[in-house]
Design a protein that fits this description.
- There is one protein chain.
- This protein is of the alpha/beta class.
- It is built from eleven helices and twelve strands.
- Strand 1, helix 2 and strand 2 form a beta-alpha-beta unit.
- About 45% of the residues are buried.
């Protein structure tokens, strides 16, 4: 081999040896399409993702869909065009994602779902889903309520504030709750309507429930704390005492719910942790490294009745 070829071969071998180190040092570029900022929970979720990305040196491209699916689809297509390393998003609703997810797959960009799932027959369109078991959250709320009324054979009239129509938490929290209370002959859901996961809408719908049913209402089951807090205001304005005249059960475990429990206005909240940033960054790195990850990563969560709120409050991070 002539000297020129030897030098060229040495350069190529050196470059090859350096490649893995460069790849390892390369900044992860993550495109994240958020639902919006509709609640305390969502705000905490966004903060967890942004702060973790900053702390771990991840280049985060972030978009707020303002609770509109078309905005999320537009953001995902933008991330595909920018050739990010990984796309993650929390779907506004369950259906209608196959087309854009197929586009991401064709571009060889892995997709991670966070917090909410999609309704697709082709589960190869995403790598994994990180988040809570919403159905189990509904069951926890139902079990607590059944225990609360243990030994009471009278009719228990329940009104339900559902989350955003078509969203995974709204569908599953309703399903899990009904799975438990449906076995109780004296439990009746007399009104059920969406409050869109917001305080304003929760208050508005609760006002309509009270106008229609009045003192017949024994229990309010809200799919999230923000709607419950809005509804508590409506209950008070109607001259009734929340948590006493009407038992209030909700889901999320945000600080606002703990404040309401300490004030004696909310009976119980089922935890749904929004602090998914560390799990998301870790999973994204594993996916890029070619490591096998579970198809479903469930977060561990508890349930907090009014009696423990004051003690637990200092531990809350969201």
């Amino acid at each position: 081999m002539n000297p020129g070829k030897k030098i060229l071969l040495a350069v190529l071998l050196a470059a090859g040896a350096m490649a893995p180190a460069l790849a390892a040092d390369k900044k992860l570029v993550l495109g994240f399409a958020q639902v919006g900022a509709e609640s305390e929970w969502r705000t905490a979720n966004t903060q967890s993702i942004k702060s973790t990305a900053q702390k771990e040196g991840v280049t985060l491209k972030f978009s707020d869909a303002q609770q509109k699916q078309e905005n999320q689809i537009k953001a995902i297509r933008s991330y595909i065009a920018q050739k990010v390393d990984v796309i993650a998003f929390s779907p506004v609703v369950e259906s209608g994602w196959d087309t854009v997810l197929k586009e991401a797959k064709a571009a060889k960009i892995p997709v991670i779902l966070t917090d909410r799932s999609v309704d697709s027959k082709d589960d190869s369109l995403y790598v994994t889903m990180i988040g809570s078991d919403f159905t189990e959250e509904g069951r926890k709320a139902g079990r607590w309520l059944v225990e609360k009324y243990k030994g009471n054979s009278g009719v228990v009239n329940i009104v339900e504030l559902q989350g955003t129509v078509g969203s995974a938490p709204a569908i599953d929290r309703k399903k899990g709750f009904e799975e438990i209370v449906g076995k109780q002959a004296n439990f009746k859901i007399i009104r059920s309507q969406t409050g869109d996961f917001t305080r304003t809408k929760g208050k508005e719908v609760m006002e309509a429930f009270l106008k229609a049913e009045g003192k017949k209402i024994n229990v309010l089951y809200a799919h999230n704390d923000d709607m419950a807090i809005g509804a508590i205001q409506a209950i008070e304005e109607a001259g009734l005492k929340p948590a006493k005249d009407i038992v209030v059960v909700s889901i999320d475990g945000v600080k606002g719910a703990f404040e309401a429990m300490i004030a004696g206005k909310l009976n119980v909240t089922v935890e749904c942790s929004p602090l998914l940033g560390p799990q998301l960054m870790s999973t994204a790195r594993d996916v890029l490294a070619g490591k096998s990850v579970p198809k479903r990563i469930v977060t561990e969560e508890g349930i907090f009745p009014m009696e423990v709120a004051a003690k637990e409050f200092p531990n809350r991070k969201y």
